Amino acid sequence: MTRKPFQSPACARCAKAIGKTCCEPGPHEHLAMVTRADIARISAHTRLSARRFTEEEAVSEAGAVDFEARWPLYRDYFRRGPVRITLLARDGACVFLDRARGCTLPLDVRPIACRLYPFDKWADGSWSLAIGRFGDLQAAREEGSACLAVEEAGSMEEVLAAFGTTHEAVEALGAQLAEEVRNHGRG
Ligand code: SF4
Ligand code: SF4
Question: How far is the CA of 29 from the centre of ligand 1 (A)?
Answer without folding.
Answer: 16
